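Provenance and format

Records in this collection were gathered into a single text stream. Each protein contributes a sequence line and a token line. The two records reproduced below are adjacent in the stream.
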Amino acid sequence: MSILDLGFDSPEALLEDVKDMAPFMDAMIADLGLSENGAVQSIRDGISPHIVLGLSDDHLDAIFATGLNYMQAGEVAQAQTVFQKLVTFKSIDYRFWYALGTTFQTQERYEDAGRAYLMSLALKATDVDGYLRLGECLLAAGELENALGSFQTALALCADGHGQDDQQQIAERRVAYTHQRLDNSGAGSTSIS
């Protein structure tokens, strides 16, 4: 079992679980008296909450900068709150997921961090830092083979022109370190299923 597993045996099981939640969500919205609320209806129709709330990209960038300032000041919980709001407002911005992942990783919540990094990478598959951070989480969880794959992907992206020299050097060191750990452990680690 990997830290990245969602606890579902198949994609169909995940979809079934989401479908089972729909009546509960409908009842909750009705109980709150929001069934006829235009903003709620727009969100349920698939319009991004940031659009419904009238938040421009400049607004979101300013909020993001606030979260970054909290992180730099060491106020991880405050930063995490900001980034969680941002992924709620606009879930398709990879930066917000990546930043949220860093807050979890700082707290050594590697499973949550790994999932946030995966969301970030789903939105920007060429983000070298995303693969490096994901690999670090997998390494911390003892998933050496999966970590190696993540670091090797970062290295390949650098070779393909997507990374900087410092990212390539980090990836090379992480690959070498993970190979050494695998050699020392007899290559017995958990793989993503």
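Adjacent record:
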Amino acid sequence: MVNEDTRREFVNELWQRFEALQQWAEENWPDKENPLSSADFVESRKEILGLRNPAQAPGGVPADREPEQGGAQYVNVNPAPWP
């Protein structure tokens, strides 16, 4: 089990790297007529912020519950395809 300090450090570093990736993607997006914006990264931000609370899985469903206990029947963990 990961302790809380290690989790916070990981999430903070992941957030910083994601910010750098987002900035790079916005600057280097090849379609200048339809540029990327921060709105294009909302779902990714939600996923990263969801890592702050280990009891929650993506989508707000408790990760430790089985379907018969109120957990999700199916949790899609596949990333969306690149546009």
